[in-house]
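Table S2 (text version). Query chain:
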Amino acid sequence: MEKIVPVNIFDTFVSQVKTIITLKILITMKNLLSITLIFSLAVLCSCGGGKVKTVAETEGELYAPGAKTTYVDVAKKGISETDTIPAHTIIENPQVNLSAFPVDKDGYIILFDGSCTKGWRGYGKEHLPGKWVIEENTLKFSGSGGGEAQEADGGDIIFAHKFKNFEVSIDWKVSKGANSGIFYLAQEIGGARNANGRFRMEPIYISSPESQVLDNENHVDAKMGKDGNRKSSSLYDMIPAKPQNAKPFGEWNNTTITVFKGTVLHAQNGENVLEYHLWTPQWTEMLQASKFSLKSWPLAFELLNNCGGANREGYIGLQDHGDDVWFRNIKIKEL
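Corresponding structure-token output:
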């Protein structure tokens, strides 16, 4: 007679439960891996779409192989018995390759398309400060109302490529009473070093002309300066924008700046509002009549009088003045 082995119902039940739990764990792990893979692909594709690129490939597109930061130290220089240009350092950081950015049908290179901050970083920094965010297809500075560049995660930003002859077009709008600016031909200038050996960065506007961005009706700067030369799209503190055709806070404006062999043109909302000429006696006279004069601010005078440095080229920058401001459709055409 065949021997009958008694079945332990409880052991069988436990074994089946273990099998089910194991299967569920495996399925969960598989799903998590799938989600992680999808997220990773989304991150890699977020600045350009199309073919998935590794981080190394993306970095290789943005910066030339072996690119590194260099420093040009400029010694203190005596201009007269009373005026001295302070010692400073011109910091030359690696620049992005423009071939990594799309070009529209009119030949403009898209510097910000509403979805990605590729190519942008803080002035004197390696990263984009946290106060600059993408909001509804705009590049927004989230202000605290505390004044110019007072937040640790704020500060002015630049597009990491130097331009020589160009036409740059930028849409902007401001909150009530807000102030900001658009810089061009900017350099990164280091002053004295701190205890850790890092530079104290000089402000961007001592090397760069500024096209004012302002709520003309509600910010006190509109009433300062001379003849309205601190209102929107003016060459800040030097030449007023005329006609002054800015739209009020909360509405979109456009500023277009053209630089070609020293001739500079500002246009606001489709109208030319000012023209001037860099590296001329007239330019020096304007500086001497402004807050950037040799006597008032020797280093600013030296750098602006030789705007663009030895190669007469520089960065495009956007200002943190502590207020909410939005930018969009940032594009540039090299001339």
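Notes on Table S2: The first strand starts at residue 70 and ends at 74. The domain at 65-334 is CATH 2.60.120.560 (Jelly Rolls).
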